[in-house]
Here is the input.
Amino acid sequence: MSDDNIFTDEEYRELFVDVEPLTEQRRRRVPAWLSVLGVLLAVAMLAGYFGDLVTGIQTSPSIREPADIRAFALDEIASSPWGWLASDVVVRDLEEPRVGAYVTNAPPDGIITVDLRPWNEDRLDELIDHELGHLVDFAVWGLRGDSPEGRRGGLRSEAWAECSAVGAGTRRVDQRDPDTEYHCFANEFEVWEQTMSAIDEICRPWGPPECRPVTLN
Ligand SMILES: [Zn+2]
Here is the structure.
């Protein structure tokens, strides 16, 4: 019986709140690309790579309206083998600047809440796949504690979700330590793959009851 945005401390700990990785923030703070863009443009045009550069520019944050963010997220959900676990996408201002999205396990409802901010297409795809990874976790292992033996193959919650995004094809494995809990190293991805392939079917504990066999991309 909790109001929309009011959680007890315990409930709050059950929320899987996803912050922007620090590396991402650092990258955004560096304004150097702005100053060299003009030079790059000229060089690229001379070299005939204008098309590639345009593609690069299009990946800057371009999804801004709540309805567009929701529609884009729903597209990614529709293309994911685990998208059926999401019951809805809600877009609203999450106020805390570092929080990009969350799903809750208290109680689990399958709703993905995304922060209202300009999103880059690739980043939003990756984020949605990350949240779907949490929903797989909730659906398979339910409300049991954060990391009892066997849950998520022993991976930490955020590593599991990051590796789910790798499995969905919207993220790469980390070659270097990103220095946050939001990592998926090659050995972690192997654990994710092995754990997922050992699951026969996933049943959704929220919304209309449904079970589906596990499919890996
Ligand atoms: Zn997460």
